[in-house]
TrEMBL record:
Positions that bind 4-imidazolone-5-propanoate: 72, 130, 157, 221, 297
Example GO BP: L-histidine catabolic process to glutamate and formate
Cofactor stoichiometry and binding remark: Binds 1 zinc or iron ion per subunit.
Binding site for Fe(3+): 63, 65, 218, 292
Source organism of this protein record: Saccharothrix espanaensis (strain ATCC 51144 / DSM 44229 / JCM 9112 / NBRC 15066 / NRRL 15764)
Record keyword Transmembrane present: no
EC number: 3.5.2.7
Annotated Zn(2+) binding sites: 63, 65, 218, 292
GO MF term (any one): iron ion binding
InterPro entries per UniProt: Amidohydro-rel, HutI, Metal-dep_hydrolase_composite, Metal_Hydrolase
Organismal lineage: Bacteria, Bacillati, Actinomycetota, Actinomycetes, Pseudonocardiales
Protein name: Imidazolonepropionase
Coiled coil regions, renumbered to chain: none
Pathway(s) served: Amino-acid degradation; L-histidine degradation into L-glutamate; N-formimidoyl-L-glutamate from L-histidine: step 3/3
Length: 380
């Protein structure tokens, strides 16, 4: 079965050439089979007339926490009346998650992934981290791997209330990692005041690397700290948040293969500053944008909102923001087959109800997703 998407007003490929006008795409067997001028397009089994709309790769959401139960509206309301965001809020979701059945957790993640797909997201990473016992982290990892494209172990999200920090780190580095590692591709640690310090974070990351997992780090979310330096030193695929960076952090990221994943929806929802995207890009760092969807610090699945914010408030160009939310996320996840629309890429396609991607920022808050293909299948 092949599909010709034709009469594309503006096609963003994130490959060479980066943007085409009056273009067409052919999807076949779940992959992009042809890209070029609409006038030269080959025949296909079915035709979708984009009628001058913009087409781009599906969003790659490289940072979410979707295995959870419960709600933290009250905490959000308190924040909006001036209370600060604290890592300790994670424990509220841990209690609700432990009390939920596997079916309830699966239904919740399915609902959020479907919500994301309906807005143009076609590739989703998600994490454990609301279980914090061996049993609850393993079931979270199984559910994550089943319902998202990539699963990450985040047993080092918070020291469970009442637990001894060093004993908990030993558990994470030993029995918990042994049990979870077969279900996930990545390991992550929340390296921040109130969560895990540099030595504890290093221990977790080294233990994960020894089991063959790729590394990611939550760092520099609530203040400057060792997260970025550690991520770069250990060759992590990404360091996520990067809200508070010193110039040495920016230089370290620019000179490394570690992607700076920025989570602006989280920074707004927690009333933090927005990350220094311009400094990172100007220094030559690779930047990704992701939703950080979770019930505490960032309860949105909207990648368009992140792109809009990046353009309007972080001084990224539309092209930089769209790249960061597609190919940037793919690079952060070590995936060469998503986030772009060259021949051979996964057929993950997003059609906007607009003539250009500029409308994502020009028409903030307007739902612009018109059609979505995921692995070549029309899903919206
Ligand atoms: O990425 N920073 C740590 N973890 C999540 C927050 C989780 C929560 O508050 O429930 C984050 O913001």
């Amino acid at each position: 079965m092949s599909t010709l998407i034709t009469n594309i007003g503006e096609l963003t490929t994130n490959a060479e050439p980066g943007r085409l006008t009056d273009a067409a795409l052919v999807l076949a067997d779940g992959h992009v089979a042809w890209v070029g001028a609409a006038a030269a397009a080959p025949a296909a089994d079915e035709v979708f007339d984009a009628a001058g709309r913009a087409v781009l790769p599906g969003w790659v959401d490289s940072h979410t926490h979707l295995v959870f139960a419960g709600d933290r509206t009250a905490e959000f309301e308190a924040r909006m009346s001036g209370q600060p965001y604290r890592a300790g809020g994670i424990a509220v979701t841990v209690n609700a998650t432990r009390a939920a059945s596997d079916d309830e957790l699966a239904a919740t993640i399915r609902r959020h992934v479907a919500e994301a797909v309906a807005q143009g997201t076609t590739y989703v990473e998600t994490k454990t981290g609301y279980g914090l016992t061996v049993e609850d982290e393993v079931r979270s990892a199984r559910i994550a791997a089943l319902h998202a494209d990539e699963a990450t172990f985040l047993g080092a999200h918070l020291v469970p209330p009442g637990a001894d920090a060093d004993e908990y780190v030993s558990l994470v580095c030993g029995e918990m990692l042994d049990a979870v590692a077969p279900h996930v591709r990545w390991a992550d640690v929340f390296c921040e005041k109130g969560a895990f310090d540099a030595d504890q974070s290093r221990a977790v990351l080294e233990a994960a690397a020894a089991r063959g997992l790729g590394l990611r780090v939550h760092g520099n979310q609530l203040g400057e700290g060792p997260g970025v330096r550690l991520a770069v030193e250990l060759g992590a695929a990404s360091v996520d948040h990067c809200t508070y960076l010193s110039s040495a952090d920016v230089d370290a990221l620019a000179g490394s293969g570690t992607v700076a994943t920025l989570l602006p929806a989280c920074d707004l929802s927690t009333r933090q500053s927005l990350p220094p995207a311009r400094a990172l890009l100007d220094a030559g760092a690779t930047v990704a944008l992701a939703s950080n969807c979770n019930p505490g610090s960032s309860y949105t699945t909207s990648m368009a909102y992140c792109v809009t914010t990046a353009v309007l408030q972080m001084r990224m160009s539309v092209q930089e923001a769209v790249f960061a939310a597609t190919r940037g996320g793919a690079i952060a996840l070590g995936r060469a087959d998503v986030g772009h629309l060259a021949v051979g890429a996964r057929a993950d396609v997003h059609v906007l109800d607009a003539p250009s991607t500029t409308h994502l920022a020009y028409r903030p808050g307007v739902p612009l997703t018109h059609a979505v293909w995921r692995r070549g299948e029309r899903v919206r």
